[in-house]
Amino acid sequence: MADGRLPDPTPAVRLSDATVRLGGRDIWSHVDLVVEPGTFVAVLGPNGAGKSTLVKAVLGVVPLSGGRIEVFGRPPGEGGRDIGYLPQRRSFDAGMRVRGVDVVRMGVDGDRWGLPLPWGSARRARDARVDEAIDMVGAGDYAGRPIGEVSGGEQQRLLIAQALVRHPRLLLLDEPLDSLDLPNQAAVASLISDISRASGITVLIVAHDVNPIASALDAVVYVAQGKAVSGTPDDVITTGTLSALYGTPIEVLTTSDGRRVVVGQPDAASHHAGPHGHTHGHTHDHGGSE
Fold first, then answer.
1. In 3-state terms, what secondary structure has residue 279?
2. Average pLDDT over residues 164-184
3. pLDDT at position 115, please?
4. All domains of the chain, ordered by start, with CATH?
5. What pTM, to 2 d.p., does this model score?
6. What would the mean pLDDT of 270-289 be, rounded to a whole number?
7. In the chain, at which end, N or C, are there fewer CB atoms within 10 A of the end residue's CB?
8. Average pLDDT, the chain
């Protein structure tokens, strides 16, 4: 750091023997997990395994039935402005006239609807933050247009800007690449990675397809069968680890070009890892609540 201080060693997220029980069943149980500050981490796993539930537990929206969660050393729900959150993709009607800049501004004062807006220096500071967030995601050319008129990839950039506008230390993204075409997936994934690296923001991303983000990942969390394992892609996407996680034989094969292919999962999920250990794949998880 510029002032010579050592980085804060407190984990961004820590789960200790954590369990979530919903609708009379354990979604996952006895989960231990540490997300280090400044890292880019993907949450993977089959549909219904509890990936989105994990994010909501970190937010404090879903309570634990056992164990504990800490977010920067505090209980979930106390992070406030330290956390930026982008829920599963929402759609905007083509006729929606709200401008992109106004969508971003809601990240600052969306809780003020019906109350007087700030004036003077407070308003200038707010507008500066909005402009900064729009610039971070490269949305300056279209932020003034109605949100319903811009492309899906452009909408997603504006929503990421909304999550960034309060300068969070932790960014939680639930399926941010879902419903985007492949070029937009790659572009938005690259954007998230660049923001994480440049700003030191911890990113926890629930991924439907890990392929676009594979080369940027520091770690993965794989959720299945009510359990979770975490580590580097090379550590987690292995025959032994996935077989133990699923409780059934899972085979990780290596193709002639160095890609890894996971076969034998109960829900036919697959991952493909590149020759340099980067994981590429499809979990066949189409979102929805978990």
1. strand
2. 90
3. 46
4. 13-282 (3.40.50.300)
5. 0.80
6. 41
7. N
8. 82
Q: What burial letters (b/e) apply to 244-282, b meaning 16+ CB within 10 Å?
A: ebbeeebebeeeeeebbbbebbeeebbbbbbeeebbbbe
Task: List the 40-44 sheet strands across, edge first.
Answer: 83-86, 170-174, 202-206, 40-44, 219-224, 227-231
pLDDT greater than 60 at residue 116:
no
User: Tokens at residue 142, please?
Assistant: 């279209």
Strands 170-174 and 202-206: parallel
More confident: 35 or 96: 35
pLDDT digit string (tens) for 17-50?
A: 999 999 999 999 999 999 999 999 999 888 888 9
> Which tokens go with 122?
């407070």
Amino acid 112 reads R
Give residue 283's pLDDT.
35
Residue carrying structure tokens 């967030």 = 133
DSSP string, 32-90: EEEE-TT-EEEEE-STTSSHHHHHHHHHTSS--SEEEEEETTB-TT--GGGEEEE-SPP
Burial 24-48 (b: 16+ CB within 10 A, else e): eeebbbebebebbbbbbbbbbbbeb
Tell me the backbone φ, ψ of residue 226, rounded to 5 degrees: 75, 10
Query: At CA 70, angle to CA 69 and CA 73, rounded to 5?
Result: 165
| 148: Cβ contacts below 8 Å, ≥ 6 apart | 92, 93, 94, 95, 96, 97, 98
* Distance (Å, whole) CA 168 – CA 21: 29
Looking at per-residue confidence, does 235 or 119 come out higher?
235
Q: Using the predicted structure, report yes or no on whether residue 65 has a pLDDT greater than 90.
A: yes
289 contacts: CB under 8 Å, gap ≥ 6: 52
